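hey so u asked for the seq, here:
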Amino acid sequence: MYGRDELIVFHGHKTWDDLPKSPVSLIPHSFRRYYIGDCDYRDSSGGLVLITDGSDKASCYVGSPVTQQWVKIPPPPSSDPKGDSTVFGLVTRLDEDGVVLSFKVIRIASYQATNDYLSSDLGVLLYSSETGIWTSKVIHSPHQIGNMSNINLNGTFYFGCLSVPGILLAHDFYSESDQFRVVQLPDYPDYNKDYKRTLTTSGGFVMYARTLAKKEETVLKIWRLMNNDDYSWELLWEVGFPITGNYAPMAMHPFDVAAVYLWSQRDHQLVSCNLLKQDYTILGDASNDGHQDCFIDKSVCKQNLDEDLNFQVCIWLFQFVIPRWMESVPRPPQAEMIDTTSLLSYAAATHGRMMKDIEEEEYFWNEVEHGRI
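ran it, structure tokens below
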């Protein structure tokens, strides 16, 4: 997924053969609208989804589109008296089998530039499924956070940096730390804008892929961020493919680190590369090629990817992956659990009340304008 748009879909998981082709199609359409009053998709992690109620700033829900279980998250505490905090993200803690043990909901309460705009402070509110309560903290960053583009993995958010190209700002929301850690990308400080690059995830790691077009081939390099204290990168692949043009890395297979997908700006087509065999296949719509487990929304690719590539910025691609093993959604103490039907009914009722209030207010001011009140 690119933001909330679905770019490329792979299906056919043996554990979930009876599910629809698109994992995102499990999320009801009304969750993915942008109009006021509807439920909006906000984030996902570990197979759980975070949605917000457009009619009620204080309300949000965490649940599973597969099991149809949802937890109603209580409003933030009195430490947010103005109600200005914004629902931002979701992090999860998993066991060795990928089963969700707990989750945290993140609301952004404040952002302030410090030290003459060289550094910044991010104020957040955190709701824990383990305790069922909200806590707050301020996280200090040595740089300014970028436009909130991020990668979310294993409880950690990785943000872009506004002032220093080639670095990430990382924070583990399960830690007690109040500091962002600086993660230098593999090509820092030689951050050549001619490179086409993407940040994504695969095999439980943050992945950084980069291409450079040469006269007779496209050179692809892929690193993974090691889960160690110094945030070092390991170079996994350096491969030359006999394809030329503006091919940009777009995504990687969520489980297979030897499968990468390149987007051609010139031909507007997706290329699947097998790094072990060092061969490639041009993919098209599932209806007209042999890859029946794949669907590509080319219009979304052209609209979003080409825009970022033209601005010579890194592509941030988030993957919504249904876990191999699906258990019940972790239930916080004293939390209300509802199903999808009840959630949609509640959202519709809230929207109806809001629209009625708007109509009554418009009627009042219309009467005032015409001197009848």
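Confidence is low (pLDDT under 50) at residues 19-23, 30-37, 285-292. Residues 249 and 262 are 4 Å apart (CA to CA).
lmk if thats what u needed
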